[in-house]
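Q&A log
Question type: sequence-to-structure
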Amino acid sequence: MPFTKVQSEKLSLAVVRQIEQLILQGILRPGERLPSERELSERMGVSRPSLREAVAELHERGLLETRPGSGIYVSNALEAQFSPALVRLFATHDEAVNDYIAFRRDMEGLAIERAALLGSDTDLKVVDTLFRKMEAAHSKRDPSEEAELDAEFHMAIVEACHNVVMLHMMRSMFDLLQQGVFFNRKVMFQQRMTRDMLLDQHRAINDALQARDPAAARAAVAAHLDFVENALAGQRKADQNEAVAKRRMEHEEAR
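Response status: OK
Response body:
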């Protein structure tokens, strides 16, 4: 008969499973510091020896790392999804930008459809809260905060679709975007007209999601990323034209 005696689970294994789940669900993020050993043991209702045993196991699995004199962190290695050589290729070839936007158009379109259908009321409230923060940051002269909130807004939509594979894949893609591998997002937010249009697009995305309209939400995401693609193409052309103009000017001054 395929039965064995039921055995009590070690507390350390229960701790391991809980922290693994928090990392898998994207609640604990790479580089995030965990509470102190005393606080964590109290929160989880386990002894410090059991907690230390769990931390050692998670460290062995590459999920946590201990920094002397600083504490316990979720391993940064979890977000390093692309090799440095591949990142350099992305950064030095324009076609990677277009493919990146096409990839986001497909994946975020699917994510927002799922979020509209499957996301909880709290999920949608998180997205709406981030949009309200974008509205508040929109009036500031420095676009940095609004640009950062833009990435958080899109990531919250991915989180709301509750697909852990998509979550970690898209988080690694957004990490490359925040590093400026594909393009500098802050440049797009420097022109007031462009900032106004981007905010309107994010408002349309949020409105459709809050209405739980999957088709309208996907269309709003596609329209937004079409705009980004066209704006980047226009910027590249303008940069090329400026480079030619500077060469002409240098030639005229040398005559």
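Response note: The mean pLDDT is 87.
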